[in-house]
Amino acid sequence: MPEYIYHPDEHALVERAAAILRTGDYNPHWFNYPSLYIYLQAFGYIPYFLISAARGFGNTIPDPAPYGFYFTGRLITGFLGALTVLAVYGLGARMYERKIGLISSALLTFSLLHVVHSHYATTDLPMAFAVVLSLLFCQLTVEKQELRYTMLAGLFAGLSASIKYPGAVAIVPVLVAQLLISRQHTWVAVGQRLGLGVGAFLAGFLLGTPYALLELNTFLSSLASVVGHYGASQPGFEGLDAGLWYVRQAMTSADAPLAAVGLAGIVWAALKRRRGDLLLLSFVVPYYLLVSLWRVRFERNLVALFPVLTVLAGRFLVEIVTGLPRRWPALRRWDGAILAAALAVIVIVPAMAIVEFDSTLAKMDHRTVAAESANAYIPAGSKIVVEAFSIPLDWDQFQVTHLVRIDSEPAQWYTEEEIDYVVVSDGHWRILFRQPERHRRELTTYEDILSRSTIVQAYPAEIPALLNRGYPTIAVYHFPDVLILRLD
Hints:
Elements: H1 10-23, H2 36-54, H3 67-95, H4 98-109, H5 112-117, H6 124-144, H7 147-163, H8 171-180, H9 187-208, H10 211-214, H11 216-231, H12 242-251, H13 256-272, H14 275-293, H15 305-327, H16 335-362, H17 366-377, E1 383-387, E2 399-403, H18 411-416, E3 421-425, H19 426-432, H20 440-451, E4 454-459, E5 474-478
Parallel strand pairs: 1-2, 1-3
Antiparallel strand pairs: 3-5, 4-5
Helix pairs in contact: 1-2, 2-3, 3-4, 3-6, 3-15, 4-15, 6-7, 6-8, 6-14, 7-8, 7-9, 8-9, 8-14, 12-14, 13-15, 13-16, 14-15, 15-16
């Protein structure tokens, strides 16, 4: 654990989960995320809290939540990330064959995107896990045509939506599964099965987010806020070509070999059109179209796609390699070695990136170094503006104002408020500078503020070579035009 929580989204879940234990109020009164993973986090903190109490750390839950809650929350996500690898094996083996299940789970094991998001107490990875389980029960529905599997598929689709709203797309394969077995049933029976799947989906969602119904006005207001946010803009994170943007992100990351084989697997599945293919495509295609419609784009929206992509990629690899001996019989004895070599080629780059990412996490974060340095040399009592994605300062020592970005206020405001120091992170700005025409107002204000300031110290990030996002450079500026130094 770092000395400070730098992930921008973890606090939204962890602090609300801690508040449930602190107050006994199970209503989060906030639904920008559904509630299921908040509840799972809260119950996961109980053993940590009791162990801490037994060691003499007090019998009350502090506000804000202790770092141990974040650590526990990350353990839960990491555990679900490992279980997703097992679930992908089951999905690949059930839909196709055991060898495809093994290859698919190996591909997911070495997916950088999957590993990175397995480190944090956030919702993307748990949603992906629930989606895979729903697809597995969809396959069992097609194979065995038993109502219990329809109910379980719908239930886990609802649970995925109750972890993160886009997980609702998992209901599509549940409905497709009923249509794939329609020849063995009357249309009345198919209609009943469809209704059962939808009912199980709604039950799963309300099981995880019961106050969506019990506090409907707040739920609708929060949901409208989320939809409005993704449909409108977040400067630096929006664009009209979201679909192509996601493809570019995947194809320029360390996961590019996996993404390329996964795209080939999608085409292969579309050509073969077996029942398992149709089930997987019925999630991949609608989910991709959904995130492509949003103006606001985040790479983490691909997390739910990658487990399914690994199954499609594994199926493509195995069928291509095992099909080679039909054209070249001499290769029959080498198909296992060829498959292993292809797998190694695909995973070597993301595996190296994973090692580098974990090594970076094991070191002290450069933002912590910057904070310790700034806390030491900035005079006590200084008025400081700190923008998001920057550094933690000593609130008792300084008068700190947090802004999303420094352009949230004009330069004149800084003068009127007698601001002494400005702490800037390029976590936002390097993205905005790539689109200068679109963000002219923000960039003009940014340059106006910094042109009146004197840089004191910059703390560049040591960005892992294969992981080019998430490590902002921090710069500390003295705002007034005249800097008066006290010399000892």
